[in-house]
Each structure stands twice: as C-alpha cells, then as structure tokens.
Amino acid sequence: MTRYAFSVSVPGTHTATIERVTALLAAQGFGILTRIDVHEVFQKKLGLTRAPYTILGACNPGFANEALGVQPEIGILLPCNVVVEAVESGCRVHVTDPEPLFGLADLPALAHVMGEVRTRMQAVVQGLSAAT
Q1: pLDDT per position as a tens digit, 41-67
Q2: How many CA atoms lie within 13 Å of 57's alpha carbon, on the beta-carbon side?
Q3: Residue 61: is the preceding peptide bond cis (ω within 30°)?
C-alpha cells in the first residue's frame, strides 16, 4: 500500500482479474469509463514487451456529479483509477485511495463524498482479498 492506493495480490490471470475487479466495482456503483492496456501501447509505440498492465478508469456518476457541482476543476482528479498488473504469482491490483487526492482540493463540502468513495474502494479490495 502507498499513500495513494490500496493494493492486494490475487491469484489468477490478468483477464480474469479485470473481470473480477469490474464486477466488484459494479457492486459498489462504479462503471468503467476508460481502459488503457499499457503493455499494448508500449508494444505498439515503443516496441517494448512487458507483462500485462491495465489501467481502468472507474466512475460512480452520482458521486462524480456531486463533486463536479461543488468544484468543476475537481474533474482533474477523476475518475478513480484501478491498476491490474500481471505478476509472477497472479496479479497485483492497485485501487485509488481518494483521500489524499481529494485532500489536495481542501474542500470540506466534499468530505462525505470522499469518505463514501474511499469506503467503497476499500470494499473492492476486501472483495478481492476474500476471494483469494
């Protein structure tokens, strides 16, 4: 774990882990807005081969709408990124901790949104941990 992410190691393939993460996010009210397969971009643009590494941009529209209503510029901190990284033993999943990001904005009006998003992101990590 870092100051800005919750992390968990899980067994399974990269594809299966992305499916599990996506389902757990959906159960918490988040959809995937973006998907960047970094390993494919690096192969295509740089000719580099690396293990599968995917960044998912997760968004809960209700929370995003509320945050943008308080301060439109907060969009620079959205969506919540989730990384699925293939490692030798399976995958490592890194889920954004919104607390340090929203802390940059220093907007007390968003404290409840940040708290709810944080709780839901922690539930995703717990769901991944429980399934291992």
Answers
A1: 999 999 999 999 999 999 999 999 999
A2: 13
A3: no
